[in-house]
Amino acid sequence: MAPEQHTGGDELARFLRARRTQTSPESAGLTPGPGARRTPGLRREELATLAGVSIDYYTRLERGKETRPSPGVVDALARALQLDDDEHHHLRELAARAARYAPEPPPPPSRTVRPHLKLVLETMRPNPAYILSRSMDMLAWNPGGLALYAGLSDWPAKQRNLARYLFLHPTARELFPDWENLVRSCVARLRAEAGTNPDAPDFTNLVGELLLKSPDFAKLWERYEVVGRKKIQKTFHHPTVGVLTLSWQGMHLDGTLGQRLSTYTAEPGTPDHDAMLLLDMSAEPVDRTPSTEPSARREAG
Asked: What is the DSSP string of 222-286?
């Protein structure tokens, strides 16, 4: 089945509708009238009034018919919806994208990881480390980086995606004691990334699969949260090395289209560090077959 194509204002409309239904009249300073409300959150006319726009104009925004809201309107909507700075920035990006929308989706970025980045992963041992694509595909790793996600190595390399792992792998809920918070942050990250590229194949394929296979994902996806609460420390209940708590750091990689490096560390001399060492030593070695390196050199050049 071909991915659904979006009109210019679709993603902007989805975001506004989701945030409106999650904003209570009381939090917006309104006094609800008598009787039951059929609409969760704010009504369209209430949000339009708070933002200082006509009901007809706001309705067209929420239906994807209006694709060029002014910066002032965008800022007024953000204030009315009580968006934080990251959500406000995301709304601006959606509005800008709606105004310049091109019907042909861009191709997905290359999955190739440059050889020197693979060497970086190796030099980081015994700290688990890996490189993710913008849609959370695991593109490269050192032994501990893959072994940290127990059972992920059972999947073929092209299926190794951390969002897919969190929602569909049977081990994930056992591995993470705070699984609920992790998946909420995971979906928020995907929402933020996919919001400005909703027709990109790497996002549409992954999101379509998770919507079909995971009710938990579908429920979170409908909330349209775009700000994840990233934890600096994560605890793993690992079946091989036991419980370990590691500090996490992620960073964008220069010269790549959305690739990120993530790594975990532990204070030397602690039980967590000993467990990390054991994980690295017991993990399967990384396949160093240079099948993709020529294309990586062409991309780098």
From this structure: HHT-------SEEEEEETTTEEEEEEEEEEEPTTSSS-EEEEEE--TTSHHHHHHHHHHHHSPPP
